[in-house]
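help with these tokens:
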Amino acid sequence: MRIPNSVRIVAGLFAVALLATACGSDESEAQLAADSGSSFAGPLTIGAIPDQDAEILVRNYDKLAVYLANELGIEVEFKPVTQYDAAVTAFKVGDLDLAWFGGLTGVQARLEVDGAEALAQRNIDPEFTSVFIASTGTEFGPVDDVAALSSLEGSRFTFGSESSTSGRLMPQYFLGEAGLEVDSFDGEAGFSGSHDKTIALVEAGTYEVGVLNSQVWEARTADGSFDQSKVEVIFETPTYYDYHWVVRPEIDSGLQQAILAALVGLDASNPDEAEILSFFGAESFIPTESSNYDEIEEIGREIGKITE
């Protein structure tokens, strides 16, 4: 996989630093950017792919909406969706101005909206991974490398959502590198719909093996939401670029920079802001750019998830 482009990230952070220096310290850099000529009246509608339980998403994105509204000085509204492709459609038709996508859905959304751009990602997203998990007591134990994933042939296996980068696209790519296809399992591979459901189905033994977002796995392990004696990690994938915020072109450059500054400015030493960062499983947000996801687009086309 491609080594993350640290030079671009550093350059983006330098640009944000210049913005803060130019604005001074009396007002937030986000508010100053918003005051610098944005014609957007609001409300700013934000959304996200439904990669976790709906209750968790609504509670935490509402907190983010309040934070952004305070920083930007405009109304911000979170609009939940129930399916990955529905998030892409909502962004396409303009129901969402700013959306949190996985790598694949972000590429799909940008291809649907000319001029849309990747804006920010978490500090963990340039080197993201998936984990393959198995029900304990099955014959499917730990594997050492991508080639050894071939040992999963014939298992009862589930991906997450069909459009998930970490729960489908990249795992399918790595399985392909090991010589496996979606029909290499006991019946065709399943699609659970979300990372949380993948854990639940493997825990219950409905599927012997599943694959999901490593950050969600770590979060659910930490909060004890499943019986850890029944599920184990058997492989962690190589790294790839994943989640990111994508913004529509109608959001002018001044407001885009204000949004970026607000996201980058989330402060882990502030309890309310730390809670937002904790939900995202991140220490911080950093700038990104659309070209970071070229490889995701290439793999999406290779497995037929992008056909334009």
Summary: The two ends are 24 Å apart (CA to CA). Residues 2-27 have pLDDT under 50 and may be disordered. Residues 217 and 223 are 10 Å apart (CA to CA).
